[in-house]
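Case study 2.
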Amino acid sequence: MDLDRGKPVWPQVADELRRRIDAGTYPPGDRFPAVVDLAAEFDVAASTVQKAVATLRAEGKLRTVLGQGSFVADA
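Prediction:
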């Protein structure tokens, strides 16, 4: 995915992760990839991915279990 660095990056990352969840790349109930792994994949700071993940959590797409990570919410 090519990010438009002229615009805020975190919404672009959130859009791509949302698309992957909706497409079933990350099925409901599965553990969501780690922030550091996604940051490396998108070549962005971990804080950028954290903001995108927080947005998806607020939308109900992800749920976070303390000490275990984030999981794709059941549809």
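The chain has one domain: 9-72.
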